[in-house]
Structures are given as C-alpha cells and as structure tokens.
Fold this protein.
Amino acid sequence: MTWLFLLCAAGCVSLLIYAVLQLYRQLGRSETVYRDRPPRGFELLWPLVNIMANSFGSFMSEARRAALLARLKRAGQEYSLTPEQFLGGKLVSAIGFALVGLVLASESAKMVGVVLGALLGFMYPDIWLRDHTLKRNLLILKSLPFFLDIVTLSVEAGMNLSGALQKAVDRCPPGPLLVEVNRVLRDVRGGKPRVEALRAMADRLDYSPVSSLVSALVQGELMGSSLGPVLRAQSDQRRTERFLRAEKLAMEAPVKMLGPLIMFIFPCTFIVLGFPIVMKFMASGL
C-alpha cells in the first residue's frame, strides 16, 4: 500500500513538472532577437512575466494598450517591453507583494495585508516607469545645451542639419538624448523625411524642451531660413531653463528640510536643553 501511494505521488509530481514545462514552452517565452534587454526587475521574473502577458494581455483594450505604449516610449522602453509584458509585470508584482503581505500581516489582518500588498504591487511598476521617465527627461535636459552648441557650430561651419546632428552624436557623451537622435538619423538614412523623423522624436518623448526644439527646427526647414540663429537661441533657452530649475530646487530645499527638522532635530534639541532643567527641579523637590 505504501509503495502504491509513493508511486501515485511520484506520478502526480511528474505530471505537475510536465505541465509547468509545457506552460513555460507555450507561454513563458517571447521574441527577443530584435528587442532590447528588459529592465532588471522584469528580467529576473521574465518567464512569469511572459506567462501573465500571454494569458491576460488579450483582455487589454486598444485604448489602454495605446496609452501604455505611449508611456513606454516616453521612458525609452518600447523596444524592451510590450504593453502586454508590462501588464504581466504588474500582475506578477501584485502576486509577489500579496504573498509578502500575507507573511507579514498578523492572523487577524491576513486579508487586509493581502489586499494592500496586491494593490501596492500592482501600482509599483507604474511608479517605477514614472520615476524612470522623469530621470530620463532630466538627463535629456542636462545634455541639450552642449549638444545644441555642437550642432550650432557645425551648421555655422557649413554642414547640413543631418551632418551636424551626426557630428554632435560623435562628440557628445552617451545618454538618452543621443539614443533618440541616433534613431532620427537612422530613420533619415532609411528614407524617412527629416521633418517627419524629428516630429516622430517629439511625439515619442512628449517633453516640452524637445518639442520646442523640434518645432523651431521644422519651421526653419520648411521656411528655408538659416538654422544657426535658431539653434543658438534654443541653446541659450535650454541653458536658461537649466539654471532656473537649479534655482527652483535650491529655493525648495528649506521647505523640504522643515519636516525632518520639526520631527527629528527639534525634539532632540529640546530634550538636551530641558533635561538638566528638569533634573534640577526634581532635585529641589518641585
């Protein structure tokens, strides 16, 4: 009887392993030949992300898919993740955080811990994507003035706009701005009109400094005017915006320090100053 039970248990385990392997083979893989490497968190759980994406991605509406794709483009992740894979990552994150909430919550609050953990896990990829987009936009804003200076010098030296952009790409340090400009140059070399390639970059980034620059370049291209003064004005404007942003952050610093000052530093100061006074009152019998 014991041998029969062990044989049935071994058969059940074998069937379970076979089912998991079949699930991985059918749903856990994705085409990665023409795509970039996914972010680190998604890469660690890539089979589970693809299983969720292939299982539940079809339930996503076209409007939701287009909105997610636009957000991935702004973050520079459209060649790393599809909208379905991003949704799969959110579901995997929700399950993982729900399990953490189940383990950490007390016996009377297990359900609350699971629900809160699932909500936090489902929202976490959105928070990461927003922070990544803000960080990427900041890097673009920091690199724009020097990049435009190189483009301006090249245009004033007699190069056309495509040659000036290529010269700036060769001279500037790597960053997200160069990735986008390289994409524009590849589109132009592939036969796409330069105006459409620039507008496509502005649509991808959806960032006001880049949109303003592209609008000025497109207007100069269509009007046939000299691009040197336009680029120099854009460079000065981007540099001014950078200094204004630094001044704004410097002015916000005292306000941001007020909370920790009141919560942590002031109580410790009052304890240090008040302790000898309290001890003297207690020693005198008051």
Remarks:
- DSSP finds eleven helices and no strands in the chain.
- Residues 227-283 form the longest helix (57 residues).
